[in-house]
Amino acid sequence: MDISKEELSRERIEQHDGKMCDLVAYQVKDYGYAEYIENREISNGEFRRSRSLIPFNYLDATMKKFRWDLYGENVSSQERIAQSFIEQFGEYRRKGKGLYIFSKTKGSGKTLLACCLANGVMEYVDICVKFISVPELLEMTKKSYKDFIEKEDIEKIWAAELLILDDLGAETKKEWIDTELFKLIDYRYSNKKVTIFTSNIPIDKLKLNERIVDRIFSMCIKLDLPEKSIRTIQAHDENMDFLKNIMKNAQDGAATPSQGNVTQ
After folding, report:
1. Predicted TM-score (pTM) of this structure
2. Is residue 238 situated within a structural domain?
3. Tens digits of residue pLDDT in 221-236
4. Checking DSSP bridges between strand 129-133 and strand 32-38, what pairing results, if any?
5. CA-to-CA distance for 227 and 78, rounded, in angstroms?
6. Which residues make beta-bridge pairs with 38?
7. Are residues 13 and 74 in the same domain?
8. Count of CB atoms within 10 A of residue 229's CB?
């Protein structure tokens, strides 16, 4: 037993999301009584996401949360393609088809959409998913020649049944980069591994070896997002909501000099 705390009680309970956990009460040394949640159940989808390398802020991204309406234009064809990727993933997988998500505009939702799609697939299909940006992958490739652990990580990325290669086209034009990208993409193309690319460059404008571009054309369905930064729109809306609440509190007399008044 941990000498810093004494367990007083343990109860198996159901949380609001339907998952089970242990509610444990402890008497903690130099603190007193405290309750902890332990042994919380996670779904298979949550477990797979935790091993996917998807950025932390996108781990809970879902298509239900993706705001197509923020584009302010008809995006029904893009929405249908995205939905088909989750609902008909078995067919995409059988044909080795992925997606090429393109928009020149930063913050247009390319990475977010890719993660929403991957999370949606993982919720229903038991597969290995990996996420990595192309610049990060190339940096790992350089290190792997000296680092066995990095090499093992790269092998797992190569073999992933669904791989998100984020920000293709951001890499510097160098011969060794073309060589490394061709080896990866040719392997995935030849073995019908599903790949989602995100890029701010159209496929036919990529400054890569023609063999790489040809394979990307063959292995991907194009999904072009509108040239609008939904990140900026969402940030503006959040800022306005924040300001509205602050102003309301001020009008209600909630603000005090210690909460923000500046003496000049």
Report:
1. 0.74
2. no
3. 999 999 999 888 888 8
4. unpaired
5. 13
6. 22
7. no
8. 17
